[in-house]
Automatic annotation (TrEMBL):
Coiled coil: none annotated. This is 3-hydroxyacyl-CoA dehydrogenase domain-containing protein. InterPro entries: 3HC_DH_C, 6-PGluconate_DH-like_C_sf, 6PGD_dom2. It comes from Sulfobacillus acidophilus (strain ATCC 700253 / DSM 10332 / NAL). Residues 137-213 form the 3-hydroxyacyl-CoA dehydrogenase C-terminal domain. One of its GO terms (biological process) is fatty acid metabolic process.
Length: 225
């Protein structure tokens, strides 16, 4: 039987995570689907939201006695904390936002130095996989979220989003702009990441009050970059 990659997360991330995979994928639509996971399958748990929801989903995997390896988002919760919640799961941490961006280097967090990551390399063979430190935000999400937070201060002053992104691309030679990044992620995702960072690293990551008001807000017409 062919391996299946089961993906648990929001709609926009599920499609982005599934598109490059070398194996068939299925979405975990409810806890009932957990009983269909075979030991040789893989699971990608990409929930970025309240910590209670993240813990609830990992505990559901553990309660269903899922023995398949789990690639679990470690942007808002460290892998160390996740393994304390569910010590029976075979967890590896990752950044689903970096994955969704198609980064040529994918970062993972392991629970011990000798943990084998070759099984994850088989999922996306043309990417380089690098083990990074177990820190909330990891590298990509932490860097971009802080830039987005700065952009929010300008948006709150009435500066148009496309102008902020244009200035970022031309002035800093970035491949994209913080407002577009935020809209691709969703402003609620940005808020959850910044709140998790602020809890660990302090007020410099505290989300700008403007961000909390922006669920569903867009500054771009469809197709305009």
């Amino acid at each position: 039987m062919s391996k299946t990659v089961w993906i648990w997360g929001p709609d926009n991330l599920v499609s982005a995570l599934a598109s490059p995979l070398a194996y068939p994928t299925k979405r975990l639509a409810s806890t009932n689907d957990l009983l269909s996971i075979e030991p040789d399958d893989w699971v990608m748990e990409a929930t970025i939201g309240p910590k209670a929801l993240k813990r609830q989903r990992l505990k559901a995997l553990a309660d269903a006695k899922v023995s398949a390896p789990v690639l679990s988002q470690s942007v808002t919760v460290s892998l160390r904390e996740q393994t304390r919640w569910v010590p029976t799961l075979n967890l590896t941490g990752f950044d689903p936002l970096l994955w969704g961006a198609g980064g040529h280097v994918q970062t993972v967090v392991t629970s011990h130095e000798s943990q084998d990551i070759t099984m994850w390399e088989r999922l996306w063979p043309d990417r380089k996989w690098v083990v990074t430190g177990d820190a909330v935000g990891l590298v990509y999400a932490r860097s971009l979220a802080s830039i987005i937070n700065e952009a929010a201060a300008f948006l709150a002053q009435g500066v148009p989003g496309p102008e902020i992104d244009l200035g970022t691309r031309l002035g800093l030679n970035y491949p994209g702009g913080p407002v577009r990044w935020a809209e691709d992620w969703g402003w609620d995702t940005v808020q959850f990441i910044l709140e998790a960072l602020a809890e660990v690293y302090g007020d410099r990551y505290r989300p700008h009050p403007w961000i909390r008001q922006q669920t569903g807000q867009t500054f771009f017409d469809n197709g305009v970059t």
